[in-house]
Amino acid sequence: MTPSPENPAPDNGVEPVAGTSPVTSRRMLMLGAVGASAVVAIRPALAQTAGSVLNCQIPVPDPGRAGSYIALDGTTVPARTLGAFAPPSRPYTGEEVRQALQGGMLPNSNFLSNRAYLNYIRRLQRGQGGFTCYASLQMPGN
User: Fold this and answer.
1) Please, which residues have CB within 8 angstroms of residue 54's CB and are 6 or more apart in sequence?
2) Packing angle between helix 111-122 and helix 94-101, nearest 10 degrees?
C-alpha cells in the first residue's frame, strides 16, 4: 500500500530508506536481524564441532576387524602374526590422533606400534569405524 494524503504510512518507528516504501524498509530491517542472529547461532556451532572432533573416537582396528593385529604398514593381519602389534585396549580420541600425527605418540604405544597404528589410521576409508573422525581431523582449523 502506497502512502498518500488520504492514507498515510503507519507510524511504526521505521524510517523508510530514500526511494523505498515503508514495507521495503521493514523487510530490510527484518533481513538484517535474521542475518545477525544467524551469525550468533553459527559461531557456537563451529566451536562445538571443533570440540566434538577432538573427542570423537578412532578404534584400531575398526569393529569389523576386531581381534586382528596391525602390521607395520597399517594393514590388518591375523592375531599373533609375527612383527604385528596387538590392538590398543581402547579407541583413540581425535585429540590423541591429532597430536600423534603432528609428531607425538599415541598413548600406550612404543615407536613401532605408534607407527603401525598411525599407518592404519591413515589408511582408513569411508565405511570403516573412525573414518569420519579421521577425515574431520584433516579439515583446516583442526
Assistant:
1) 93, 94, 95, 98, 142
2) 110
pLDDT digits (tens, 9 = 90+) for 15-40: 555 665 666 666 655 555 555 544 44
Cα separation, 79 vs 109, in Å, equals: 18
pLDDT tens digits, residue range 93-117? 999 999 999 999 999 999 999 999 9
Summary count for the chain: helices (H), strands (E)? 4, 4
What amino acid occupies position 134? Answer: Y
C-alpha cell at 129: 569405524
Residue 85: Cβ within 10 Å count: 21
Strands 69-70 and 57-58: unpaired
Q: What is the value of pTM for the model shown?
A: 0.64
Q: How long, in residues, is the chain? A: 142
C-alpha cell at 90: 581402547
Q: Rounded distance, CA 94 to CA 122, Å? A: 13
Q: Please tell me whether residue 117 adopts helix, strand or coil conformation.
A: helix
Per the listing, cell 598413548 goes with 107
Q: Which long-range contacts (CB under 8 A, 24 or more apart) does 15-20 make?
A: none
